[in-house]
Structure to design on (101 residues):
């Protein structure tokens, strides 16, 4: 089991009832997008379905994931994340994307 840090945007923090911008989660097995989101939804059930679609498990279109300041949103959900994220030195960042013209 590994402890990872996850940074959440304000609207998701509010929905989960969190005061701080980061949470620490315990992840079982390899540290991947899927394992982090699984742990996030298990710890904060109010977030289930907000970051990824419940039926398809796919990331929501206006949500982006960053690891070590790199956009990993389009990487496979089971790809290993960089070691600094897996060790908790760097946060896994969830951001809401903004659309407009």
């Amino acid at each position: 089991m590994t402890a990872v840090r996850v940074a959440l945007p304000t609207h998701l923090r509010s929905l989960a009832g969190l005061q701080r911008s980061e949470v620490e989660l315990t992840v079982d097995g390899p540290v991947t997008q899927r394992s982090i989101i699984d742990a996030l939804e298990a710890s904060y059930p109010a977030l289930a379905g907000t970051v990824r679609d419940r039926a398809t498990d796919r990331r929501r279109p206006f949500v982006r994931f960053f690891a070590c300041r790199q956009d990993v949103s389009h990487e496979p959900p089971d790809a290993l994340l960089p070691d600094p994220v897996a060790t908790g030195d760097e946060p896994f960042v969830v951001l809401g994307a903004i659309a407009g013209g």
In short: The chain has one domain: 2-96. The CA atoms of residues 10 and 21 lie 7 Å apart. The chain has a mean pLDDT of 93.
